[in-house]
Every structure is written in structure tokens, then in C-alpha cells.
Input
Amino acid sequence: MTLLWGEDYKVGVIDRWYRSILQRQLLKPFVHVVFGARQTGKTTMLRQLLGRAALSIDLADPEERTRLLAEPGWFRRECEALPVGRAPSIVFVDEVQSVPAVFDVVQALYDRDKTRWRFVLCASSARKLRRTGANLLPGRCMLHRLLPLMLPERPALPAGGARHPARLVSPGRQVRLRSTFPAVDLVPRLAYGDLPGIALLREGDRAPILRSFVAVHLEEEIRREALVKDWGAFVNFLRLAAREAGQVTNFAAISREVGLSQPTVKAYYQLLEDMFIGFTVPVYSKSPRRNLLSTPRFFFADLGIQHAACGVSPDPNVVLANPGRYFENWVGVEIWKRLQYAGAGSLSYFRTKDGAEVDFVVDLADRGTVAVEVKWSERPSLRDVPGLVLFLRDHPHVREGFVVCRCPRPARLSSSIVALPWQLL
Output
């Protein structure tokens, strides 16, 4: 009996927020496709949940990839050779984006018999699937996504002997984690990010592994799929994109600096999104003001990757040289991850051409809209957040504003604005 059909956890398994949800979902008679960047723990979690799959294929293996690229029909014949039993035969394919034709085979087999096989497909990039128009099995599959660790999964060091509950943005249903990653303070998580494998390493090993991730994984993925024509130009773009992460994206300036056309620069940003390396935050569109900026902000989905992509060694000293910027990026990433898991709500930012701004505007399905400013301060005041005060005055439908900061406990700054410790995010 595999873990998929049981309730037991293996000793030493570190829990994830999405684990129990995915375990229940995998019981449903659909094709399951799990997306997520490399090193977010997709394969590890699936192997633990699936146990010993009847057929397991890793398309990151060049031999396996070449074999199925040359003749995808072999995959169909191997599935058909599995014995018929009372329970479905588990078929697990990792890095499935490498051979998009696998989706066509899965559709044919699933349409023939929905109970004989249970297909679980794992992908770390959607680029080739989108570019080739791959069949993503409409009406037949459930899509899942695994992200870097959230604060509830990797808690803060306890203050006053107790852990703080998440308060501002919920990832959806409440999940009780049976085990967790080691608690960590703010600066190390801003320096090394929240990839599960990195979080479990000794501190001295984190920076070289992150540098290797950027150099090896991105080069391997991009060169293998021939996604860019000029690797050197892309590396220059990547460093600049990481350096400017969290800022308003100036496509024209980046185009001039790296010597690429604006359409190419925009295509490279889309490539990073397709590889789940980053995401775009648009301008808040429900404002009565007419002098808003129109360009988005781009964030790396993990700060450790962002530092390594900049060409600098991830280190607390890098963070402390400009802590406010990295703290703001981390808060935006944390909110985005929770909204992705919740499957509802949206994240945007507010900035006018004359300089009024709010770091994040969050539309929540259950609470309406809240505005969020991020300050490195331990004792913020209303003088620190004039943009937030102005935004709440001009947008009466937004009833709550928060200043996420390093204060020890929540503090009310006005009738509509609360200073919130980052641990309560």
C-alpha cells in the first residue's frame, strides 16, 4: 500500500502546506499536472505521496528524454504493459515539459479507460508547452502548483515563547502542519530565500548552491530548449532584471542597457514567468486617479535566486546594505504565494506620476481590499506612510491599511491603519 492511499507519514518527512491537500486531490480520477520551479520540492513530495509508482519516468535524464523524443509511442506501450488491478496503476512522469507529446499519449489512454491508470505529470517550465501548443488535457486534468516556502511553513523565531499566527493574508483553508522547517529570523530568509532544499542546508553551503542553481539550471533549461539565441545577452538581461526586481519595470531603459529590442526584453521577462522564476504585479486599476503609472513591477519568486541572478553571493551583508528594499520584495512575494495557493484574490501596486505610492494593494475574496506599506522600521508612524494615508482617503472602499514592519506587537497608528509585525503577515 502506498502513501497515496494511506494516512501515514514517513518518519522524518517535512510537511508542506499543500501536502495534505495534494494527497486528497490525487485520489480523484483525473490526470494531475504539478507545476513549479526547480528545487521547490515537487518531485520529493510526489514520490513520498505516491510511494512506489508502477511506472516512473524522469525526463531530466538525457537517455530517457532522447528515447521518448525519438518515439513517444514507447510511453504508450509501457503504460499498456502494466498489469490491470483493482486500484489504478500510478504513472509518474517528471520534467514532462521536455517531451510535450507525452500529453497526447496520456489523453488517448485516459479517454480509453479513466480508472486503469492514474497519471501524475510534473513540470518545472510552461514555456515549451505554451510555445508548442501542447495538449494540456482540457476537462481531464487537475492543475497544481508548488511554490517556495511560505512563512507558515518556515516560521519566524518565536517571540515571547509562542509563534505568531498568520493574520493578514491566508493561503486558503487552514492546514495543520505535522512537522515544519527550522524557525528562522528575518535577515537570513531575505538573504538566502525560501527554497526548501536551501532552507535545510548549513548556512555556509547555501550561497554556492544558489549560485549553482542559477548557473546550471537556467543555462541547462534555456539552452536545451533553444529558448534564447544569444546566451550572453540573456545573462546580461538576467542580472539587470534581478538588480531591478521589485521596481517599476522600465523596458526602454533595460533595452538600451543590454542592447536588446524592447520586444525581446519583454519576451525574456515572460520566459522567467514561464519557468516560475518570477511574476508580474500590475498597477491597481480601480483607482479614480488618472495620473497613474501604467507599467508593472517584476518580482523574483525567491530572494535567494534573485541575489544569485544578480551575480552577487547571497549573504546577510548584501541584505543589510539595503534592507528596506529586500524586505519589501519579500513581503510582496509572501503575499503572492498565499494568493496563488488560495486561488482567489489579486495583488497590485499603486503609484502616481507625481510620486504618491502604496507598495501593495491586495484584493481578498473574504475581506475586500486592503492596502499594505512595508517599512524596515521598528517604530513606524503616520509620517512614514503619507502615500498610504492619501490612498485610504481617496479610496473609501478600502477600509484597512497595514504597515508591515519590525515592531514587536501590532500597534494602531490611526482608525484605519495598523502597524503589523512581519511575523503576523
Notes: The longest helix spans residues 203-224. Residues 1-11, 160-164 have pLDDT under 50 and may be disordered. The longest strand covers residues 357-364. Residues 3-145 form a domain with the Rossmann fold fold (CATH 3.40.50.300).
